[in-house]
Amino acid sequence: MFTERDLPEDVSGVRASHATGALVLDCEADFETLPPAQAEELGLLVDALDPTSYPEEWLPPEVPTQLRRYVGTEFTVGMPGDGGVTWTRQTDPPIVFVKARTEGSPEDFLDFLVAEALVEVALDRPEHFLGFFEGRYRDLAAATRLSPADTYQLAVALYDASLGLDTREVFRGWDEEFPRLHDAWVDAGERLQPRLSDLPREVATGRTSFPAAAELACAGVKHGLDVPTPFGALDTEAYRDHGADYAVTWARKTFEKLRE
């Protein structure tokens, strides 16, 4: 199920700089919640395994089934929206998982995703948006009045932007030390840019839902791109400083304007 991944020199350099000792594992299958047998297999590769759980009180009454399962004691790594490369500090040492769904991805971009995960796992940040919002997730749902699935998608995007505010300067600094990874980060941003300028019109005409637009815009924040109103307000020191409180206030004000 799990095999230690051979890392190219630049990705090994990122690990040495940010997450010394972290394991990077290739996975034979896709998974989120690990069955007991696979969790036991994983436990043989690490010194300790301590699954995280969260209070039920943090959840609004209606949430996707996977999120309700996530707050329990089952060992879960990655959730819908987290992509094929995920990380966890529920183990000692921490682990970056490269899941089977990444097969066929461009090599440079996949190596960047692994390097990005190594940078993120070294931060003192939750590995899922629920650990970021905590009880404010209920407030986010109340502020937007979106469906449970759309609220989930918006929360993923908002936390993605928050992480990006902490990581993008690291990626910018790789232009000389790790130029291949830096170029992959830049290329991913350039592919996003054409979509961003039309986002307000797409949302206004119903061609793109607000949560989907937020997903694109918040990815733009991670890449240091110019993002349109109202998402530009997330690319601020205020968001970096005030976190979930800021995100909920932004959502409430934004949806009040959308309802006018």
From TrEMBL:
- What InterPro entries does the database record attribute to this sequence? DUF7089
Q: Name one Pfam family in it.
A: DUF7089
Q: What is this protein called?
A: 3'-5' exonuclease
Source species, please?
Halomarina ordinaria
